[in-house]
C-alpha cells in the first residue's frame, strides 16, 4: 500500500486525472475541427509563420514515395537536421541527425545510419506508420536547432524543450524536458526524459522528476537542476500565450525550444498535452485552471502573461532541499 | 451547457432497459438463471370421426396461455385437410376442412405447454348473463326454491355457488335437486341456475394433466364470476379452486368439438411431462409479433447462435471500458482484447493463451526480419498476415500430428487483428523498448482474459441472450462511465510522489 495514495489526497493537491482532462478541458475547450492545425506539424508551421511566431527553419518536405529517392539531394549541405512525420504523436518517428560524416548520418547517441536507413525511415513516415490512425503522411525535414550553450550541461544529447500548458491563452504551468540516455535523446517523459517544473513567474527550476520519481540532478551529466533558469522567459511565455489566438484551442500544450541565435521558438503544439507536468511541478493544475476559468475573455496576450506570472509564482523546492 | 438532457437520456435508457428486462421475466417467464428446470407438458389431442363422403368441417377448441400454464408451440397432423386457426368469442379454435372424405378419420393436434406458476394472462371478461332462461313446470318451482335456499345462506356469488353445489351433492340431495337432475345434465344445470340468480357463470372444459396418461377426456367445470375475479368449481364435489394440474382447454363456454359431415366424433387426449432447462423452454416460446416481445428467439436457430456471440460483445467492451477508464490499464488497440477474448471462447482459455503467445512470439521474430527489408507499410503488414496464417497452419498440423486436437482451434484467432497486434508490438519494441511491449501486451492479455471470463460466464450468456433490455442498461452504464471525471485506479499510484511532500 506504500505505493498508493488516496483520491482525497490527490484532490487536495489539485491533481487532474486523465478522465477529467479529457472531458472537462480537452472535450470542452478544444474544438475537434481545430485539431488538424496542431496534429499536422506542417500546418502548424505555416500558421505560425502567418502569426509571426518563430519556428525552426524548414529544409523541405517529402510527400511521395517517389520523392524518397531524392532525399539525398535535399539533405546535401546540411550538417544537422531533424526528420519528423507531420502527423506523428508522442514524439514517434522523429529522427535527429546531429552531423554528417561522409556517407554516414550520425544520431546524437553516436549511432551511424546510412542514406538507405534514412530513406526507409522517410518511407515509413509516408506510409503512415507513425501517424494517428495510420493515415498516409508527409515527412518534414527541419534544420537542427542550435540550442543555447548555457543549457547544454542540463541535457544529454538532443534538445531540451519547454512545455507550457496554455489554458484559454494563459500560460498556467511549465516544465523543461531534458533528454537522457534512457530517452534516446528524446524529450518525452514516459520515455525517460527528466522533467523539471518551472516557476511561471521567473522561469527557474522548482523540482525535477524522472520516471515519475523526484530527482535533484541530471542522471547522465550529474549536474544539479536547482540552478536551471530559462533565459528570455517573458518572451517565451508571450510566444506560448499567442498560440491561443493562433489556433483557437483552449487547452493547449506548447513545446518551445531556445535557439542560440533566434531565442525562443515554437517547436510544435499538442491538443492533448500529458499530465506529467503536474509531477514535475509537484502541484496539480486544478487550482490554476479554476482561476483562469473565472477570467473574462478577450484579454491581450501580454496581460495574460502578466496575470499568470503574478498569480502562479512558486518558490523552488530544489533549493529548499539543498539547504536542508 | 446543461447536462440535464444527458442524464435524462441515461435515465430513459436505464428505465426502458429495466422495464424490458422485468417484462420478459415476469410476463414471459424467462428465468434469471440458466440452470432452472421447467416442466413442459406435451399434450396430444386426437380427433376421431367417421366421414360420410360429404364436405367435412371440424371445429375444435384450443388451449391458450392461462393462469399456471404458458403455451409454447403447437403442431397439427392432418393430411389432406385445410387448416386455419381462428379467434372467436375470446377462444382460440382450429378449423380443419376437406371437400370430400369417407370412412374413419384421425386428426392430431399437439401442444407444448410450460408449467408457469407466475403466468399472468390478460383478465377474463365477465360473460354476459343469460336472460333467456325458461323453465317448464314443475321444474320452475324446483329451480326457484333451490336458488332461494342457497341465496339465503350465502353472501356473494362465490358462496352462493358453493351452497348451490352443496345442495346437489349426493348425500344432501333434496327432492328438488333430484327432480332437476332427471331432466338436465349436472353442469349445464348449475350454470343455468347461477345465471338465473344473476351470477355470471359458464361451463369450461379442462384436462387433468397426469404424466403418461392416454385416451383421456376433458372434464367440465363451472366458472363463476364476481365482477373482479373468477373461481372454478368442480360440479361433482362442489370444491372451489383450480387444481394445479388442470389445463383449461376450452374457456369461453362453447363446444369443445363440432364436426359437420361426420358422425361418431370424439376427441381423446394423451400427455407426457418432461423437464427441460428453462433456457430451452424459453427458446420454444411462440414468437409473438409485438414490440415488447421483440426477441432474438424469433430468428432461425443459426442466426440465434450468431446473435448469442454478438450480444456478448457489449459485455467484453464494458470490461475494456472499465479497465481503461476506471482502472487505467494500457492495451494495444482499444478493442483488440475483446476480439482475442471471442477467440478464447472458441479455443478455451489455456489453449487460447498458449496459441496467442506462440503466434505473437513467432510473429515478432519474423517481423523483426521483415523490418530489415525496408517495405512499405501495407505490404509489410500483409506479409505479416501471410506469416500469421503460415504459423497458424503449421501449429494446427503439428498439434494434430501430436494428437492435440485442442491445437486445431487456433484457427479461430482473428488473423488480421493478430497481424496488426504483431506490427504494433514490433514498432513499440523498436521505439519504446521491450518493457513497454510487456506492459501493453500484458495489459491487452489481462483485459482479454477478464473479458473472456465475463463473456464465457453461463449466467452472463443467459442474461444477455434472453434479456435484450440488458443492452440498454449496459448502454446507460457506459454513458455514465463516459462521464466520469475522477481518478483512474492506477493514477493513485502514478501521482503518489506528488502527495509525498
From TrEMBL, chain A:
UniProt xrefs under PANTHER family: BETA-CITRYLGLUTAMATE SYNTHASE B-RELATED, RIBOSOMAL PROTEIN S6 MODIFICATION PROTEIN
Record's keyword terms, sorted: ATP-binding, Ligase, Manganese, Nucleotide-binding
Organism encoding this protein: Halomonas icarae
Higher taxonomy: Bacteria, Pseudomonadati, Pseudomonadota, Gammaproteobacteria, Oceanospirillales
InterPro entries for the chain: ATP-grasp, RimK-rel_E_lig, RimK-rel_E_lig_ATP-grasp
Gene Ontology biological-process annotations: SOS response
Gene3D superfamilies assigned: ATP-grasp fold, B domain
Protein name: Alpha-L-glutamate ligase-like protein
Highest taxon above the source species: Bacteria
ATP-grasp domain: residues covered: 45-300
UniProtKB/TrEMBL annotation, chain B:
Entry keyword annotation includes Transmembrane: yes
Pfam families: 7TM_transglut, Transglut_i_TM
Sequence ranges assigned to domain 7 transmembrane helices usually fused to an inactive transglutaminase in this UniProt record: 255-498
Family matches, as SUPFAM superfamilies: Cysteine proteinases
Ranges in coiled-coil conformation: none
Transmembrane segments: 305-327, 339-366, 372-395, 402-422, 437-455, 467-487
Keywords: Membrane, Transmembrane, Transmembrane helix
Domain Inactive transglutaminase fused to 7 transmembrane helices: 23-182
Name of the protein in its database record: Gonadoliberin III
Organism: Halomonas icarae
Amino acid at each position: 500500500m506504500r505505493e498508493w495514495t488516496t483520491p482525497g489526497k490527490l484532490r487536495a493537491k489539485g491533481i487532474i486525472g486523465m478522465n477529467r482532462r479529457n472531458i472537462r478541458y480537452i472535450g470542452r475547450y478544444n474544438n475537434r475541427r481545430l485539431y488538424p492545425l496542431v496534429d499536422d506539424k506542417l500546418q502548424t508551421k505555416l500558421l505560425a509563420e502567418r502569426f509571426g511566431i518563430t519556428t525552426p527553419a524548414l529544409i523541405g518536405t517529402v510527400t511521395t514515395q517517389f520523392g524518397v529517392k531524392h532525399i539525398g539531394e535535399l539533405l546535401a549541405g546540411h550538417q544537422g537536421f531533424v526528420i519528423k512525420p507531420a502527423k506523428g504523436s508522442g514524439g514517434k518517428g522523429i529522427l535527429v541527425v546531429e552531423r554528417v560524416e561522409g556517407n554516414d548520418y550520425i544520431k546524437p547517441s553516436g549511432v551511424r545510419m546510412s542514406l538507405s536507413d534514412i530513406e526507409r525511415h522517410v518511407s515509413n513516415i509516408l506510409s503512415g506508420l507513425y501517424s494517428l490512425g495510420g493515415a498516409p503522411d508527409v515527412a518534414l525535414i527541419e534544420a537542427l536547432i542550435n540550442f543555447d550553450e548555457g543549457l547544454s550541461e542540463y541535457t544529454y544529447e538532443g534538445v531540451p524543450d519547454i512545455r507550457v500548458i496554455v489554458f484559454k491563452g494563459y500560460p498556467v504551468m511549465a516544465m523543461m524536458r531534458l533528454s537522457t540516455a534512457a530517452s534516446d535523446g528524446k524529450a518525452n517523459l514516459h520515455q525517460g526524459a527528466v522533467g523539471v517544473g518551472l516557476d511561471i513567474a521567473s522561469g527557474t527550476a522548482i523540482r525535477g522528476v524522472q520516471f515519475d520519481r523526484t530527482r535533484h540532478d541530471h542522471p547522465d551529466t550529474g549536474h544539479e537542476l536547482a540552478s536551471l533558469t530559462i533565459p528570455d522567459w517573458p518572451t517565451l511565455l508571450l510566444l506560448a500565450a499567442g498560440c491561443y489566438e493562433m489556433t483557437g484551442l483552449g487547452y493547449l500544450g506548447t513545446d518551445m525550444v531556445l535557439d542560440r541565435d533566434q531565442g525562443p521558438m515554437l517547436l510544435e503544439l499538442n491538443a492533448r498535452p500529458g499530465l506529467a507536468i503536474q509531477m514535475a511541478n509537484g502541484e496539480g493544475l486544478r487550482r490554476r485552471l479554476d482561476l483562469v476559468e473565472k477570467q473574462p475573455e478577450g484579454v491581450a496576450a501580454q496581460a495574460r502573461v502578466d496575470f499568470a506570472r503574478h498569480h502562479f509564482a512558486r518558490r523552488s523546492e530544489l533549493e529548499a532541499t539543498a539547504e536542508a | 451547457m446543461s447536462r440535464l438532457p444527458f442524464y435524462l437520456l441515461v435515465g430513459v435508457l436505464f428505465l426502458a432497459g429495466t422495464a424490458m428486462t422485468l417484462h420478459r421475466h415476469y410476463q414471459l417467464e424467462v428465468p434469471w438463471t440458466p440452470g432452472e428446470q421447467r416442466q413442459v407438458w406435451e399434450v396430444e389431442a386426437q380427433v376421431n370421426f367417421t366421414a360420410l363422403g360429404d364436405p367435412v368441417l371440424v371445429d375444435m377448441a384450443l388451449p391458450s396461455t392461462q393462469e399456471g400454464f404458458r403455451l409454447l408451440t403447437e403442431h397439427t397432423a392432418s393430411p389432406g385437410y385445410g387448416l386455419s386457426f381462428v379467434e372467436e368469442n375470446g377462444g382460440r379454435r382450429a378449423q380443419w376442412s376437406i371437400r370430400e372424405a369417407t370412412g374413419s378419420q384421425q386428426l392430431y393436434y399437439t401442444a407444448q405447454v410450460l408449467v408457469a406458476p407466475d403466468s399472468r394472462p390478460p383478465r377474463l371478461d365477465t360473460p354476459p348473463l343469460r336472460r333467456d332462461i325458461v323453465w317448464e313446470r314443475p321444474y320452475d318451482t324446483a329451480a326457484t326454491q333451490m336458488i332461494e335456499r342457497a341465496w339465503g345462506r350465502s353472501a356473494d356469488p362465490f358462496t352462493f355457488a358453493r351452497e348451490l353445489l352443496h345442495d346437489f351433492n349426493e348425500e344432501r340431495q333434496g327432492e328438488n335437486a333430484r327432480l332437476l337432475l332427471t331432466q338436465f345434465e349436472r353442469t349445464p344445470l348449475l350454470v343455468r341456475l347461477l345465471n338465473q340468480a344473476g351470477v355470471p357463470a359458464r361451463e369450461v372444459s379442462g384436462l387433468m394433466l397426469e404424466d403418461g396418461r392416454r385416451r383421456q377426456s376433458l372434464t367440465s367445470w363451472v366458472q363463476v364470476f364476481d365482477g373482479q375475479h373468477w373461481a372454478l368449481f368442480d360440479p361433482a364435489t362442489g370444491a372451489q379452486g383450480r387444481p394445479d394440474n388442470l389445463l383449461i382447454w376450452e374457456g369461453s363456454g362453447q363446444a369443445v368439438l363440432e364436426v359437420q359431415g361426420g358422425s361418431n366424433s370424439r376427441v381423446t387426449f394423451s400427455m407426457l411431462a418432461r423437464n427441460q432447462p428453462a433456457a430451452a423452454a424459453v427458446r420454444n416460446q411462440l414468437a409473438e409479433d409485438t414490440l415488447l416481445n421483440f426477441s432474438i428467439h424469433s430468428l432461425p436457430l443459426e442466426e440465434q447462435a450468431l446473435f448469442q456471440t454478438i450480444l456478448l460483445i457489449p459485455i467484453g467492451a464494458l470490461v475494456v471500458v472499465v479497465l481503461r477508464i476506471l482502472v487505467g490499464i494500457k492495451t494495444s488497440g482499444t478493442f483488440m482484447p475483446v476480439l482475442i477474448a471471442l477467440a478464447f471462447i472458441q479455443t478455451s482459455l489455456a489453449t487460447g493463451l498458449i496459441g496467442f503467445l506462440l503466434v505473437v512470439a513467432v510473429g515478432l521474430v519474423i517481423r523483426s526480419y521483415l523490418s530489415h527489408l525496408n517495405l512499405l507499410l501495407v505490404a509489410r503488414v500483409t506479409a505479416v498476415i501471410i506469416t500469421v496464417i503460415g504459423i497458424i497452419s503449421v501449429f494446427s498440423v503439428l498439434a494434430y500430428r501430436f494428437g492435440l486436437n485442442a491445437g486445431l482451434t487456433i484457427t479461430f484467432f482473428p488473423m488480421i487483428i493478430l497481424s496488426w497486434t504483431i506490427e504494433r508490438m514490433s514498432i513499440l519494441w523498436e521505439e519504446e523498448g521491450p518493457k513497454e511491449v510487456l506492459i501493453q501486451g500484458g495489459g491487452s492479455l489481462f483485459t482479454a482474459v477478464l473479458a473472456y471470463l465475463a463473456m464465457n460466464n453461463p449466467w452472463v450468456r443467459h442474461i444477455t441472450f434472453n434479456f435484450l433490455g440488458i443492452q440498454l442498461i449496459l448502454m446507460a452504464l457506459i454513458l455514465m462511465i463516459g462521464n466520469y471525471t475522477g481518478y483512474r485506479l492506477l493514477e493513485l499510484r502514478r501521482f503518489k510522489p506528488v502527495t509525498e511532500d
